[in-house]
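To start, an entry.
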Amino acid sequence: MDLLDKLTILSDAAKYDAACTSSGVRRGFQPGKIGNTSSSIAGCCHSFSADGRCITLLKVLMTNCCSYDCKYCINRRSNDVRRAAFTPKELADLTIEFYRRNYIEGLFLSSGVLRSPDYTTELMIRSLRMLREDYGFNGYIHAKAIPGTSPELVQQLGLLADRLSVNIELPSQEGLQTLAPDKTKQAILKPMGLIRDQASQSKQELVKFRHAPVFAPAGQSTQLIVGATQDSDRHILHLTQSLYDKYKLKRVFYSAYVPVVEHALLPSIDTKPPLLREHRLYQADWLLRFYGFRAEELLNEDTPDFNPLIDPKCHWAIGHMEQFPVEVMRADYEMLLRVPGIGPVSARRIISARRTTHLRFEDLKKLGVVLKRAQFFITCCGRMRSGLHFSAATLVQQLAAIEQGQLPDETAQQLSLFDSVG
C-alpha cells in the first residue's frame, strides 16, 4: 500500500474525534528549528484563529488496526474495513513535508490499539521524537494518550507533545461495560491523573530551572460521546464538572454520536446525530468554565435533561424566577453573569458604566447586552422595559421563538440585528 492510500484511510478514520484543538501554548522561533506555536492560533482542523486565519492540523491515526472491539467504533476489530498503519518515519516525513508546503500548522495524532497500548504509544513516541529532534519541528502537536499505557511512556509522550488527551468516550461505567468491554474506568482515569501531576510538577520545575523540559504545556482534554447510551444531560454534566475539578482539564469535547455501524445496543444507523443536544452541552460547559455555575445548579433529578428549545442559561433562569428581575444599577458581577443575554464582557462594562451614569435599556445594547433575552430578567432604575408582556406560562415560548429567530415584527424592529452573543 502506498503512502497516499494510507493517508486516505487513516485521515478518514480520525474524523470522528472532536477533541482536536491547538490553543493554549506559545513557543517562539528557535535557531536551527522550523515552525513556531503561537497562543493566538486557537482553532481546530479547518477552523479559525483569533486573528481570522484558517488553521489546519494534519489529523490522522497512527493505525486503524485495533485489538479492541468497542461496538460504537468504526475501527473495532470485528468490523470489516480497510486497515493501514504508518511507520514512524512515514508519519514524520508526511508531517514535515506538509508543513513545508504550508498545508498544515501542526499535527493531531491518535491511534487504534495495535498489539497493546504500550506498543502503539512507542510507535507514536518514535514518530514525534523524529519530528522534534531529527527534523527540528517546533510546531503544534496534539497526541492521544491511550488508556492502559505505562506511566513512563505517557511521560515521554507529554515531553514531545503540546497537548495530551485521554478520551473517556462513554460517560458511565455501565456504558463502558456494555459497549467497550476492553476498556475500564480505572485505565482511562489513571493516565489523566498522571498528566495532571506531571504538568503541575513541570510548572514548579520551570520556576526553579528556566530550561527544564516542559510537559504538555497546553494541558489535557477529553471527549464524551453524546447519544450512544441512555445517559442524561445531568449525568454528563456532573462528570464534566468532576473532570474539571479533579484533573484540571482545559476542555471537555462533546461529540454527537454518528451511527456508522449497526448493532442492537446502539441507535439505528438511520438515526440522525443529536447535534442540538451536543450544542446545548457545549453551552452548559461554557457556563461551568466562565460563568461560575456548577453542574448541580443547572440540572436536577426532576429535570435531568435540558430543554432543547432554549439555551441552558435561560433554562436555569426560568427555574429560578424568584431571583429575578435583577436591577442592573445594583447587582454584583456574579449576579449579572447569571442573567441571560449578559456575558463576562458586558457585565464588566455595566459595572464600569454605572459608576458615572444611570443606565437605560438603550445603553445596555451599546454595552453588548443581548437585550432580546435579558429584557425579561432585568430592570433599569427599578423599571421593566416598556411594552414588554409575558407570563411564567408564555416565557419559554417567547424565548424559544427568539432562539429560532421567530420574533414578532414589531419586536424585531426594536431590536438591533447586531446584538452580540451574551
